[in-house]
Automatic annotation (TrEMBL):
PROSITE patterns reported in the protein's UniProt record: SAM_MT_RNA_M5U, TRMA_1, TRMA_2
Protein purpose: Dual-specificity methyltransferase that catalyzes the formation of 5-methyluridine at position 54 (m5U54) in all tRNAs, and that of position 341 (m5U341) in tmRNA (transfer-mRNA).
GO cellular component: cytosol
Organism encoding this protein: Spongiibacter pelagi
Family: Belongs to the class I-like SAM-binding methyltransferase superfamily. RNA M5U methyltransferase family. TrmA subfamily.
UniProt cross-references to NCBIfam families, sorted A to Z: trmA_only
Protein name (Swiss-Prot/TrEMBL): tRNA/tmRNA (uracil-C(5))-methyltransferase
Gene this protein is translated from: trmA
Amino acid sequence: MSFQAIDPSQYELLLAEKSQRITELFADTTSLSPEVFRSPTSHYRMRAEFRIWHQDDDLFYAMFDPAEPKEPVRIDDFPVASEQICSAMPKLLDGLRDAPALRNRLFQVEFLSTLSGELLVTLIYHRKLGPEWQQAATELCEQLDIEIIGRSRGQKVVLQRDYVQEALPVGEQVFHYRQYEGGFSQPNATVNSAMIQWAMARASQAPERDLLELYCGNGNFTIPLAGCCRRVLATEISKTSVKAARENFELNNVHNAEIARMSSEDFTAALQGEREFRRLEGIDLASYDLGTVLVDPPRAGLDEATCELISGFDNIIYISCNPHTLHRDLQQLCKSHALTHFALFDQFPYTEHMECGVFLQRANFATE
């Protein structure tokens, strides 16, 4: 059975419907129609994960329909995934079938790919992995020219490295990112590139001042935006993402950015002088002239204190993976700011998911 969830001939219609829904949702907030950034119609997803279903002497990739969560749907073709993933899927499955040390009690496979052509595969087991598994996995790595990691409860076996390196084109520039297995990275690289370029255009409106970024991840926005302003101060709570961000600063020769491993709530308290934190040692908050803030929060949106904090900035770049919480937060932010740019980024074609971007300027600075 092939995966039938996409129909490229329907893409334009589905995208137009998304744009219409977004326009209607924000009609009480802005008269602007969203600038729409489309996705490729296939091979756009850089990450994918599947259950491995064992049936007699065979095994296959499987997903589960939420309507029938106990019935596996066999996946022989997955055209939403990158070309690297699609090419590797049948070859990997053949290699697993032929190697008892690799297939025994294997229950999940995760793929992480890049536009630059790298591919990392994580094999997840319900058993401890020993030397026999490592030898068989090493041979499969060499055969398929990919990276493989083995995982089981409390165990992670890295054969060579546990990351891929992306070279992401954004306009006329190329940015380099180390993306770790298990860490967050943007799933749709083409749309991510457009999203970064859109944010760079907004950040460039205050090049002589500093920028604060909350929820910075692996430096996806931090690195390009460092070239659009004097300095960047970023925060992120995930250890893996902070490690990746610092390495990515070095990869891109970014020397005007600092990162603190803190939640947005804690950083808000620090910036407002309510508490002191050891994680800010060596960072002179008073030396920053923060004029622009970029936030890319989780689906829950901004907490009340962070929303109040960013309302004190002249310029706000807000990237949202949940238009409903963005709409909620704008009810507060639009009391002091004018919404001057509005965008829809189609990160997840053929789904209900909608990624948005808005740019707000303090009302007395706002321009069309």
